[in-house]
Design a protein that fits this description.
The protein has about 300 residues and is an alpha/beta fold. The chain has nine helices and ten strands.
Length: about 300
């Protein structure tokens, strides 16, 4: 167990399944719908018999009614691949109220989300993998179904540091190509980048038939911009600091943020991405519970 994993939260969420929105293609029997047909209790459809089909699956009642041979198709169940993509850029070091205290940053919040989701997925027998999206800190753990894979994911989450520019676009394109079979790709980031770059990433992931979910982490001051005196703003990703009188730019800033958020909403809607904007002041256990319940079959 790591300090960002709360056993009480894991226990609370254990009864909520992590479901995919699209059929998954795994390599073992599991609880998720597969795009292939197999043997299970859930009937799917009839199709015409063709030479070579297993005659044991013929529906003789249908033959008696129509004098034609039909095969029964059933839904095959398989396991899910959970691929976590966590942004480790410098801006993820920003915390609630502007603090940079240990345990209070966006990255710490992302650790809790990712670590708990990894436990939930592993607990239901699914594969777990991780991509760290940073310019300097780059790690890749392919989704695997084992306790060792879960430990590796948690180890990397513990080592993450928020620094440098974002490497999220490159990490998403790599995940799209390197995760060969369909997966649930969960992106945890503040998405501070050109929205059109994100459109390309999302379209690539969807083209590869992945189910994509995004936790967009923001701190309330980044939206409200409630500052009432001159303040020095520091770019956590390396640009020069700026001394600004907030009252002179507050209106334009809020308009720019609303335009940016609307662009993000439009892009995720167009790309069929499960998008959730999260304030890091929110209880992460409640956020995850709502996410899991919304996906429940």
């Amino acid at each position: 167990m790591r300090d960002f994993i709360d056993p009480g939260v894991v226990s609370r969420l254990a009864g909520l399944p992590l479901d995919a929105r699209i059929p998954m293609a795994g390599n073992v029997s599991g609880r998720h719908r597969s795009p292939t047909r197999g043997s299970s209790l859930e009937f799917s459809e009839y199709r015409k018999y063709v030479p070579g089909d297993d005659t044991r699956r013929l529906d003789w009642r249908a033959w008696g009614r129509s004098d034609r041979f039909y095969i029964k198709e059933y839904e095959a169940d398989t396991n899910l691949r959970l691929c976590l993509v966590v942004d480790v850029s410098g801006s993820m070091g920003y915390g609630a109220g502007g603090t940079r205290d240990q345990g209070q940053s966006k990255l710490d919040y992302a650790r809790r989300l990712a670590g708990t989701l990894a436990y939930v997925a592993a607990g239901q027998g699914d594969a777990v993998g991780l991509f760290c999206a940073g310019e300097g800190f780059r790690r890749e753990i392919p989704p695997k179904r084992s306790s060792a894979a879960l430990r590796n994911v948690l180890d990397e989450l513990a080592l993450m540091k928020a620094e440098g520019e974002t490497g999220l676009p490159m990490a998403l394109h790599e995940a799209a190509e390197r995760v060969a079979q369909r997966a649930l790709v969960v992106i945890i980031s503040d998405l501070f980048m050109d929205p059109e770059e994100l459109r390309s990433c999302f379209q690539h992931l969807r083209f590869r038939r992945h189910d994509v979910a995004v936790f967009h982490l923001m701190e309330q001051n980044e939206i409200d911009f409630e500052f009432d005196r001159p303040i020095r703003f520091v770019d956590l990703e390396g640009a020069a600091p700026m001394l600004v009188d907030p009252t002179t730019i507050a209106k334009q800033y809020r308009q720019a943020v609303q335009i940016y958020l609307e662009q993000i909403r439009q892009i995720t809607r167009d790309s069929a991405v499960d998008y959730r904007r999260i304030g890091i002041e929110q209880n992460y256990a409640d956020v995850l519970a709502q996410f899991l319940l919304a996906r429940k079959k």
